Every structure is written in structure tokens, then in C-alpha cells.
């Protein structure tokens, strides 16, 4: 195929959850095709001779700086071309990107799952994540009652929506589970009409949890998943594994996140959001 034009992009990551960021003012005629091509872990973009090829998604961001605090409209297109309603690490990256342009330490992020407030302190970004929802209609799940410690395709899970649906399984050691083998059956289980992210968690012995997540739309494990981290703590509270409103450390492979799930009000997700570099990406392709 021959390239017709290009668009500038930046690369950010939040605890290893990496994204290409494109200003929505720059035209990309086919966003799903753009994401599928450039996020591919085998043939996608390689930035600054990094060992990591591709990314976990493309954030198309529209800055509206006439508001106080500034607003950014976030659209996350995943590697399979689908649009995710919410992404915790993506929202933190969006806030960092907007803060760079406005100098504001508070950013409002408009997502398909609702508007979220973010606080930016240097490289650390904390974002509101909404109230976790367990009701079957909210997950969604084809069930007459909440799925709490329910066996689904051989895995005992608790289902919760933290912006997107998660099936959370608490295990003795997340590293002892072959996630790529067990997750797809749960992710595609008929009880989840829109599919589900599959998140494993195990207590770290210090009041926090280790985490691994197989992400819907990525169709594989990611180095970090913010909605998954919030789902871990929300499910842990539901099961009585944690109590109170104090922050809980959740550790996916990419680094530590801070999660607060209060008894009332919005959950909070905090952690680093780091700019890795910038480049130009092909936007339109034509078959030869």
C-alpha cells in the first residue's frame, strides 16, 4: 500500500499502559484503521528505537481551553478498532497532555462514560473514576443478581463496571496463572453481552494487591489497566477484603497505582503519566 499523508502524534504511558496521542483537530479519515495499523505489537510504530512496538490504543483528544478548568474530549480507539467508553490510565494521559498545553493543574475529561475531573501534580495524575457498579444491568451481565464470587468458564469472578466491565478473580498468586489461556473464555462468555475485561488480583501481603488484566479490545494482557485496578479494590471491598476509605496500592506489571474506593462518591485512580516522545504517523492508505 502507498501512503497518502501523515499526522503528528505523541507517545505517553501510564505505568506501562502506552498510548499514541493525536490532536483531534488533525484529520484522520479512518480512526479504526489508524489504530489497527499503528498499535499492532508486531508491525506498528516504533518510537525512538524503543523495544516496544505499537501501543495499547490511540487517544484522540480535543482540547477546549475556553473553560475553567480546561476540558478535553477523549476518544480511545483500541487496537482492534473499537472505542472504549473509559480508560483510567488513558484519562490520566489525557489530563497530562492537556495540562502541558494549558498550564492548569485541574482538567475536566469528557469520556463516553461521563465527565471526570483530574488533578495534575508534575508527572503524577489523579482522576475521578465514577462509582463502581455491580448491578447486572450496569455491568452489563445477563444475570438476575450481581455476579459475586461466581464461577464463569472455570474462573471464580466478581463482575463490576468501573467505566468498562471487569470480571475480577482473586487468586493466590497472579503470576502462577496462565492469563492468556484462561481469560478469553471469560472475556467472551455469553453472560457478558458486551464482553468483559478479565482481571486477576492477589494480596501483596502489605495491604495492597498485585494485578494482571486481559483487556477487551486489546485482546491480550497489558502492562497496566486503570479501570482494572479500580475494579480490584471495588471487588475487594465488596468481598470484605479491604475496609474504609484509605488509598490502596495496586501493582500491575508496569508499576504502582493508588486506588481509593470510598463508601460514597467517586473512586480515584492515581499514578504517573509520562511523555515518551513524538513523531509522524501515516493516516490514509491505498491498496496497490
UniProtKB/TrEMBL annotation:
The active site is at 87 (proton donor), 225 (proton acceptor). Its EC number is 5.1.1.7. Residues 245-288 are annotated as: Disordered. InterPro entries: DAP_epimerase_DapF. Homodimer. The keyword Isomerase applies. It holds the Pfam family DAP_epimerase. One of its GO terms (cellular component) is cytoplasm. This is Diaminopimelate epimerase. Catalyzes the stereoinversion of LL-2,6-diaminopimelate (L,L-DAP) to meso-diaminopimelate (meso-DAP), a precursor of L-lysine. It comes from Haloferax namakaokahaiae. Substrate binds at residues 17, 78, 88-89, 197, 215-216, 226-227. Belongs to the diaminopimelate epimerase family. The lineage of its organism: Archaea, Methanobacteriati, Methanobacteriota, Stenosarchaea group, Halobacteria. GO terms for biological process: lysine biosynthetic process via diaminopimelate. It is found in: Cytoplasm.
Amino acid at each position: 500500500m502507498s501512503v497518502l499523508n501523515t499526522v503528528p502524534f505523541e507517545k505517553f504511558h501510564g505505568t506501562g499502559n502506552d498510548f499514541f496521542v493525536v490532536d483531534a483537530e488533525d484529520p484522520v479519515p479512518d480512526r479504526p484503521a489508524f489504530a489497527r495499523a499503528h498499535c499492532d505489537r508486531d508491525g506498528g510504530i516504533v518510537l525512538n528505537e524503543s523495544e516496544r512496538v505499537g501501543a495499547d490504543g490511540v487517544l484522540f483528544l480535543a482540547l477546549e481551553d475556553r473553560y475553567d478548568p480546561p476540558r478535553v474530549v477523549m476518544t480511545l480507539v483500541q487496537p482492534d478498532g473499537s472505542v472504549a467508553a473509559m480508560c483510567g490510565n488513558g484519562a490520566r494521559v489525557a489530563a497530562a497532555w492537556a495540562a502541558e498545553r494549558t498550564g492548569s493543574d485541574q482538567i475536566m475529561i469528557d469520556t463516553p462514560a461521563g465527565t471526570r475531573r483530574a488533578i495534575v501534580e508534575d508527572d503524577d495524575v489523579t482522576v475521578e473514576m465514577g462509582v463502581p457498579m455491580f448491578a447486572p444491568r450496569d455491568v452489563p451481565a445477563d444475570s438476575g443478581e450481581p455476579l459475586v464470587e461466581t464461577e464463569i468458564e472455570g474462573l471464580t469472578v466478581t463482575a463490576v463496571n468501573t467505566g468498562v466491565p471487569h470480571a475480577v478473580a482473586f487468586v493466590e498468586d497472579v503470576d502462577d496463572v496462565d492469563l492468556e489461556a484462561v481469560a478469553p473464555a471469560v472475556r467472551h462468555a455469553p453472560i457478558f453481552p458486551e464482553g468483559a475485561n478479565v482481571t486477576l488480583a492477589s494480596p501483596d501481603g502489605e495491604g495492597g494487591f498485585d494485578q494482571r488484566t486481559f483487556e477487551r479490545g486489546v485482546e491480550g494482557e497489558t502492562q497496566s489497566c486503570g479501570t482494572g485496578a479500580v475494579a480490584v479494590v471495588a471487588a475487594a471491598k465488596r468481598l470484605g477484603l479491604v475496609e474504609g476509605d484509605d488509598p490502596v496500592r495496586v501493582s500491575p506489571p508496569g508499576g504502582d497505582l493508588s486506588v481509593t474506593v470510598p463508601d460514597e462518591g467517586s473512586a480515584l485512580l492515581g499514578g504517573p503519566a509520562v511523555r515518551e516522545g513524538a513523531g509522524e504517523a501515516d493516516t490514509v492508505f491505498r491498496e496497490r
